[in-house]
Amino acid sequence: MRPSLLAVFLSFATHAAHAGPASAASDLAQESAQQGDIDIAVTLDAGEQSGSASASVRIHARREVVWSLITNCSEALHMIPGLMACDVVETAPDRSWQRIRHVMNYSWYAPKLRYEIRAWYDEPSRVSIERVSGDLALLRCSWELQSDGDDTVAHYSVHLVPGFWVPRWIERAALRRDLPKMLRALRTRAEFVQKQKPG
Fold it and tell me: What global pTM score does this model have?
């Protein structure tokens, strides 16, 4: 099974796309100071109808280990709070892409999200994702994994138009806590798996 940890950032970016530019900028500056091990950037349009985010983290594990985690439904369900379902609907004969259904129940105060994505795989370096249907107006995102010796630098970017309103305080919570938490969860899991490998 293959999809990714993008639901983490999808949740984050959904909230980020509805914060005011000044509010998001001040939150981001604070987050950068507190989360020195993780790089995060957010851009919002003037009308607050769309948003973009990017994040990167260094992981002390080889690229193939990180790849196996960001493209695995079972792993995603353990690492992403609120991800209730992750199902592969269709797979290309050559496994170069998959259509995937996600259900997110982020919290009692946020609407349950159901959406389908198509993920294109360029193993082991890139995953490109685009919304097919569901509760989001637009979603385009990607993972890029770069080897650096025995480490992997994981870069994630997303452009999103949610199509519904989300309170600002949820966005602020996502910026300050949830996105860094999920990046660290990926790193922790990947480094654990790497240590279990022989040799």
Answer: 0.77
